[in-house]
Structure formats: structure tokens, C-alpha cells
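Give me the fold.
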Amino acid sequence: MDNLLVRAARGEQTERPPVWLMRQAGRHIPEYRELRAEVSFLEAIKDPEVATEISLLPWEYYRPDGVVMYSDILTVLEPLGFDYHIESGVGPVVENPVSGPNNVDRSHGDVADQLDYVGALLDRLTDRVGDETAVIGFAGGPFTLASYAVAGEPSRTHMPLRRLRASHPGAFRTLLRSFADVTREYLQFQVDSGADVVQLFDTYAGVLTPADYREFLLPLHREILADLSVPTIAFVRWMNGRLDLLADSGADVVGLDWTVDIGRARGRLDRPVQGNLDPSYLYGDPAFVRERTREVIERAGPAGHILNLGHGVDRDTPVDSVRAFVDTAKGYER
């Protein structure tokens, strides 16, 4: 029998909502900080034993309905020939960013070979949790990855990539295509390695105009998510009012950020949803967290809802509040 999260992703009515948190294997857990004091971020994600231990920390703490692999969306830069590192206070820094419109057409190397450590991690997670919970894989989407590759670092406005779209639309399209091709292969590799569910994070794509999103990005999302044999989730921030574009991606589940009224979204969408508690609410006391979590559950309804935050867990989030969030879902009765 499929586990709770997979059943909800397929639109079934479930006895309670399955629950996991984006960025749940992260800095809010004390043992994570202890592990990371000994190894860098890139060392951690590339060592399957360490990455497995970190991935399972939330499972040991909270027993959520999904264990998400500990990795990063930028891993697929490697098969495309980009080098990157994590710089304290800055974030990911691409050492050889796109230099101009003549530097955008990139073929990728063998994903399974160059990212074999991700396959090894998923194998270990599948062995460790078996059928007790879903193993969740993920990848960054073309626009989000291209933003890092063009800017060379995180960008608030993503203006370097948007400027490329305005001045060289053909090059913009070619760059997105390069990332879409490698992402499609990467997600298939994750499925082949044991992922039960996969999520596409094109987090930053909400800065595009609706017309640009539909013209340049939507066809690529459809290609990436097509023909995968496990349930798929699409997540883009700031899409309130444009949720039809996310639904048109072909994803089985539409991820909602916290700015969306989840009840209204259910009335507009013809598929399951994921979300969407405001991550800042986890700074409240457990009673507040339980109350707000129940509100999300009740507005989302009994069929096809995966409980999650509207984005990732913040680094200083209290463990007791995360536990209250998860336990509210696990104790909820339809």
C-alpha cells in the first residue's frame, strides 16, 4: 500500500494530512550544527554517509511523512561545467558564471556519473526508512538555476538574468533549455535511485511577467515533469493570482507559498496542493502553532493536501514549534 504522502499527492482523501517541511534537514536542529562544525556544506552533501545522517535527523526528531534528501539545487551546475562554493554571509557563489550571450549553450555531462553521491544517498535513505515514510527528491528549476549562473551569486531582483531576457531573448531561451535538459535527467535519476516523490523548485520564477513565464518557462516545466513515474510537486514563490500557470506545468501537486489563501486555491485548482503555513509562525509558542496549523488543514480540506510550510524552515526556528506543527497533523482526525 502506498504511504500517506504518495496517496495525498495522487488526490486521495486521507485519514489525516501527511506532513513534511521544506528545508527540514537543516540548521534549526542542534545535531546538524554540530555535524556542520566538522565539515563544509559541500563536503556534507557529497558524502553519502554524512548526508544520510543529516537527512534522517528530522525523522528521528519528528517522524514526518516524508524524508527529504539533504542536498542542494545547485548540484546540477556540475554536469554543465560550472564550479561553485558556499561563501559565508553571501551564499552560493558561481566561480565561472555565464560571461555573455555567447556562453549560454551548454551540453551536460553524465548526470548519474557526476552526481553519483546523490544516488548513493537515496539508496541509503530507502534502505533506512523502507515503507515507513516517503523519500523525497528535488531539483532546482531552469529560471532559478540560471539566475545563479548569470549573476554568479544570489540576487534579490534577478536583474542580471532578466536583463539577458530583454537584450538577448534567444540566448535567454537557450540557457533555460540547457538547465531544463539536465534537470529532467537529474529527476529521472532520483526516481531510478528510489525517490517516492520529487519536487521542482523554480522558486524565483515568480519575478517573470505572466507572458514571459508562459512563453519561456512553462513548456520547460512540462517537459521536466512529464513521464516521471512518481508524484511530482511544483513550487514557485509569489504566484498568488497566477496559480493556473503552476497547474499547467503538469505537476501532480501545486506547492503554495504563505501568501496564498489555501481555501480559495482549492476552489480554483483541479489537483492536490501542498502548503502553506507562514514559516514565521513557527516562532510562536506551540499553542499558537497548533492553532494556525489546524486552520490551514481545515481550509485545505480532506482530499489531496500535503501539509507543509509556505517556504523553508528558518535557521533559528524553535524545535518545540516544529514538533507542534508536525504533531498537529499527525494527531488530526478527519
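The first strand starts at residue 66 and ends at 68.
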